[in-house]
Structure formats: structure tokens, C-alpha cells
Design brief:
single chain, globular, DUF3558 domain-containing protein, 3 helices, 237 residues, membrane, eight-stranded antiparallel sheet, Protein Transport Mog1p, Chain A, alpha+beta
């Protein structure tokens, strides 16, 4: 009460609002700010890591070189792969038609082909012959080349010789034999393997002793040219 008799309202020591309730506390933003900054740092870190990984070149193991692929699918006659012209030097006359055989790939065979061409001359003792064989294999099956090589390497003795062939296929060898008394018989074999095919070229000569004989140095280039021709003709399309 004042001096003049009026009653004054009591003072508000707690500074309450008119309705008597305390004002709601103001939200604290410090935690949100810190949390937002942390999340931003994490996002930026992930983005940088992804960018670094994406920017690096992918390291793939080198693919193995494909082995040469050969096929007989486009060969209708095996004798089309044979060039007997050089044999005419010794025997110029064909002795019957060429003989050929083609065994197409099946469930039990990867396929094979063969050709045989004979030549003769006025002297019945003199003849020349070329035989071509091509044998295919699938997967990890052993090549026919290995079998041919073992068979010829086992032939040793007088008049027989063998040696390696380079520059045709991945492996190659040659073998020669000379035998006979009244007639000199010369047998020359060249075998090569490349990829899935083994190729064998056989040259057979019979010559009377009173004429010029056949020497390996003469027939080896013929056999090598024939092996290359066969491989070229068997290359897959």
C-alpha cells in the first residue's frame, strides 16, 4: 500500500509473462551445427575416396594370346591343299587320279583329312608320290604330331636321319630313309604342329640306280612349302 492509500500490485520477482507461465527455452543449435559439419566431412571423405578409386585405371590380368585356330570346314577336297608340280621333275606322268578322304568333326573325332597323289615315268622303276595328312584335336587332347615324332625317332640305323624343323608352326621335325639295292627308295617325312592341327607331308621316291638319285637337300624345301600351303589352307575363316 502506498502513502495515499492505494494498493500496489505485487512485484514479479521471476519476470513471468502475463499468463503466469515461463517462456519455453530457446533451442540450442550448437549440437546440430556440429553434427551437420561431421556429416558433411564424412560425405566429402567418401566422395573423395570414390573419386580416387574411379580415377585409377582398372588393372585386369592380360588375356592369353589365342592359339592359332584351324578348321577343315571350308575344305571340300583335301587334294586342293597339295601342290605336286615339283614332283614332276622326277616323274612327270600322273599314275591314276588323286585319292582323298575327309572325316568331318563329330562327337568322337575332331576331324581329319588326307590326300595321296602318285606320278610315274616311262621307266616303270621311277616313281614319285606325295601324301598329306592333317589331324585335328580338341581341348587338351595330345596332338598327333607327338605320336608321329615318336614313331619316326625310333627308326635309326644306316640310311636313316632325323632333325628339327623351325619356322613352320610351333614345332616340327623331319626324317629321311634311303634303302634298296637295284632300286633306290627314298622316304622323306616332315611333320609340324600348330594350334589344334598336326600336318604331315610324306614324299616317296623310287629310282633305278643308273639315274640321278634324290637327295634330302632337294626334297626338304618341297616338303616345307607343302606344309605351309596346307596350314594356310586350313586357317579358320
Amino acid at each position: 500500500m502506498t502513502d495515499n492509500g492505494r494498493v500496489e500490485p505485487p512485484t514479479n520477482p521471476f519476470n513471468l509473462p502475463p499468463h503466469g507461465y515461463p517462456p519455453p527455452p530457446k533451442p540450442r543449435r550448437t549440437g546440430w551445427i556440429i553434427g551437420g559439419i561431421a556429416a558433411l566431412v564424412v560425405v566429402l571423405g567418401v566422395g573423395i575416396a570414390v573419386g580416387v578409386v574411379a580415377g585409377q585405371p582398372s588393372e585386369r590380368p592380360p588375356e592369353p594370346a589365342a592359339a592359332p585356330g584351324y578348321s577343315m570346314d571350308h575344305v571340300g577336297n583335301a587334294c586342293d591343299l597339295v601342290d605336286p608340280a615339283l614332283l614332276r621333275k622326277w616323274s612327270p606322268t600322273p599314275s591314276g587320279p588323286p585319292e582323298h578322304k575327309e572325316v568331318r568333326p563329330s562327337k568322337t573325332s575332331a576331324g581329319s583329312l588326307s590326300c595321296q597323289i602318285r606320278y610315274t615315268s616311262g621307266n616303270a622303276l621311277d616313281s614319285a608320290e606325295v601324301l598329306l595328312d592333317a589331324e585335328f584335336t580338341n581341348g587338351t587332347a595330345p596332338s598327333f604330331y607327338e605320336s608321329w615324332k615318336r614313331g619316326n625317332a625310333a627308326k635309326t640305323g644306316e640310311g636313316k636321319a632325323s632333325g628339327p624343323i623351325t619356322g613352320i608352326g610351333t614345332q616340327g621335325f623331319w626324317h629321311s630313309e634311303v634303302f634298296g639295292d637295284l632300286v633306290a627308295n627314298t622316304r622323306y617325312v616332315l611333320c609340324v604342329v600348330d594350334g589344334n592341327v598336326s600336318v604331315r607331308v610324306r614324299l616317296n621316291f623310287s629310282r633305278s640306280r643308273d639315274v640321278a638319285q634324290v637327295h634330302r637337300e632337294e626334297v626338304q624345301p618341297i616338303a616345307e612349302a607343302q606344309a605351309r600351303k596346307a596350314l594356310s589352307g586350313l586357317k579358320g575363316n
